[in-house]
Amino acid sequence: MTNITRQNPEDDWFKPLSKDKASAEKVVRPSLSYMADAWRRLRKNKLAMMGLFFLVALMLMAVVVPWISPYSVTSTDYKNQNLAPSLSNWFGTDEAGRDVFVRTWYGARISLFVGIVAALIDCVIGIIYGGIAGYKGGKVDMVMMRIVEVLYGIPNLLVVILLMVVMGPSLTTIIIAIALTGWVGMARIVRGQVLQIKNYEFVTASKSFGAKSSRIIRKNLLPNTMGPIIVQITLTVPSAIFTEAFLSFLGLGVSVPFASWGVMANDALPVILSGDWWRLFFPALFISLTMFAFNVLGDGLQDALDPKLRG
Amino acid sequence: MIKYIIKRFFMMIATIFVIATLTFFLMHSIPGSPLESDRTTNPQIQANLEKFYHLDDPLPIQYVNYLKSIVTFDFGPSIKKPNDSVNSLIERGFPISFELGMVSILVAVISGLILGTLAALKHNGIIDYLAMTIAVVGISIPNFILATLLIQVFAGSLGWLPAATWSGPSYMILPTLALATGPMAIIARLTRSSMLEVLTQDYIKMAKAKGLKPFRVIFRHAMRNALMPIVTIMGTMLAGILTGTFIIERVFAIPGMGKYFVESISNRDYPVIMGTTVFYSAFLVFMLFLVDIVYGLLDPRIKLHNKEGESS
Questions:
Q1: A109: which of A62, A136, B119, B275 fits an S-S bond (Cβ 3.0–4.6 Å)?
Q2: Which residues span the membrane (chain A) (predicted)?
Q3: Which domains does chain A have, with CATH numbers?
Q4: What digits encode the pLDDT tens for the residues A195-217?
Q5: Of B142, B163, B250, Cβ closest to residue A242
Q6: Which CATH class for the B88-303 domain?
Q7: Could you tell me if A9 lies within 8 Å of chain B, comparing CB atoms?
């Protein structure tokens, strides 16, 4: 053992601060709600904000462009077939003389509509199913989760294709088919969260005050599962958009005079080798950009909504 | 471990059963007979046809026969292609789809691992940014869009590679690229994040301190543990690639299973739709089962977990 000699610190190093009640009670930083904090952190993520900005712009354009454009989405004009992009037709025209620019934005309407509505339906079914399984626990949970596990193994795309064959292609049936197969992932996430949170002290406290189940679910469990649910929605929307495009591409989507990105890409298939690149390029560009935007936004939200990373 | 495998096995059987039942009742809920398009045939021929395809039996009997046909692996004749049985279509198409799918998975896994590992080793360097840009772009472009773009560039403008059909190695390049890019991007991202995590662990420092060559440290020590998350998503990825072959085959006019499936949908050839759906999903579910077993073998926690008699 060696003796460690300590140097005495200078006396003024550790002077106590003057005790002042007022300043001790002062709140230094305004307290942030969970969502405000998440938003603060999301804003720092440039890529996610770009994604958000793109999606907002996309929605605005999707509403406005088909509305104010001089061209109509469905009417044909056989004098102007397969024109290259120009000042009058910004994205060119297709084989029936329809303006690709207008059709692209109309396609954005369909894609976003399908994506968002299907994701919301998924979300509602998933929350109810997963919430009940997680909250009840025990036998109920076991049976419900066995069912989910069996369903989880089914290849979604095959079932969606089958459903489309049976119900016939239309916008409503696409949404139904996607929603029927997509809720399983959400149910698993909600159930996992609820299972974890329901054992926390504040839930026990609520129970001991005599709160009913419905109140506990609404006030304690749901707000605390919001983060993963929102992240899951931002990931479900692009996968629904992908499925819609996939179905339309197979000829099982919305029918021809109307436009969706998948339909436009499918229509462009016969002419891709003849040099009419704009027919394929614009719908392809917009599907990819939209998927990209949702993906980076989802990634950003995942970090921003994670309470463990809260600064 | 055996208990785990048995549990997974029954889960697989249950899933296949659900798919088969779902397929059967969905197809039979379509109003009208699948033979209806042949309106000109006289009633006697119509009745004989229905007898031939057993469409005159009551539904429960048809259902039982259908389940039998699945167990004995005999899906019966095609309605629209009189010379073909569903089995012969599967025999002809499946090997091609399987080859395309497997090559794509191999390409995706190998290139994804290399890209992800490089990105993790050069964390925040140029290679990292480049690899992650490729990854994000790869995830964002749907495979069928990528397929058409590849045709337009490499078969159309440049004329380097054939655009369609299936008759040699050069025909495989574009479809494989189209199928493998998305999964490759996902694997690269996962590898990067799990590699970054593993590389900070003490045993890696230890291995380096022992004076092992960096190559050996990465492949023997880091890679093994970094692989776990990738095995986890392997199942869904397989499903994605194999159903992806459907649409890729359509784009490239490859005579695989997907072609017959899509054809049978537009022809309303019900036995073919049912047969291919059940066969394909059974195959996928079986692959998921294999992935689960591999996962169980690799992850010691599953063995321990089951010893405690807990299930989840």
A1: A62
A2: 47-68, 110-135, 147-165, 171-190, 247-265, 277-297
A3: 44-68+91-304 (1.10.3720.10)
A4: 888 888 888 898 898 888 888 88
A5: B142
A6: mainly alpha
A7: no
